[in-house]
Request: fold
Amino acid sequence: MRLITVLIPCYNEEKGIGKVIDNIPVDKLNALGFSVKTIVIDNNCTDNTVEIAKSRGTIVVKEPNKGKGNALLKGFNSIDKDTDIVVMLDGDNTYQSKEMLRLIEPISNDFCDVVIGTRLGGKINIGSMSTFNRMGNWTFTFLVRLAYHGNILDVCTGYFAWKREVVDSLKQTISASGFAVEMDMITKMVKMGYQIYSVPITYNRSEKNSSLHPIKDGSKIFGTWLRNLSWKPNGYRK
Ligand SMILES: Nc1nc2c(ncn2[C@@H]2O[C@H](COP(=O)(O)OP(=O)(O)OP(=O)(O)O)[C@@H](O)[C@H]2O)c(=O)[nH]1
Ligand SMILES: [Mg+2]
Reply:
């Protein structure tokens, strides 16, 4: 059996986390020859996220420094050494856990090193993404394609699957602590020479209030795009 580790970074996700964990297609993955281990990263949750995750038998690790980037790095540092494929998705049930199968297939068949789920090329359900955020996501995606020549179809997505070796490189190189982490990872992975492809996914409305600040977080994402133009992969080439 090959091992898939699923990472779910969480800051107060009591409304969504149970559904995200329950809908991971464990039986289908087992039938395809994968065992599944799920790790919730508790990023200073003050609600019932941790209790809900533990009630499902899920491993919970704690990251005291706030920000999705910090939480994800903690997740990268918590995976077992025998993990073959790493998956990340948000804990707010805006991404569909069952669609994980689609992200894993191209990696398990050695088609590529990284798969991202694209909302822009997929289904954006009503109320899940404002027009402003959609324009921002298209713009950032275009900028990455233009300047980095990455074959990317949604640079701010929260759904990823990686070959384990890619995560080993990323954990030494990512530096964004918050919502710019996806831009940081994608631009660096392109420069490191990893093959990245996109599959269409569904994006659903979040049941919680949005914590993403379009202008403040958008500026940080743009800053990361700009800064990484001069980033050099040095020893981290594929
Ligand atoms: N807001 C926030 N989210 C975090 C933090 N650390 C980890 N996360 C998780 O990162 C994921 C994405 O965060 P969201 O707040 O859903 O951000 P988003 O999906 O970009 O935007 P909206 O859902 O529209 O608010 C979720 O699973 C969060 O729980 C943190 O410090 N702040
Ligand atoms: Mg969200």
User: Anything to note?
Assistant: Residues 9-11, 13, 43, 66-68, 71, 90-92, 94, 158, 179, 206, 210-212 surround guanosine-5'-triphosphate (ligand 1) (CB under 6 Å). The chain has a mean pLDDT of 96. Residues 2-232 form a domain with the Spore Coat Polysaccharide Biosynthesis Protein SpsA; Chain A fold (CATH 3.90.550.10).
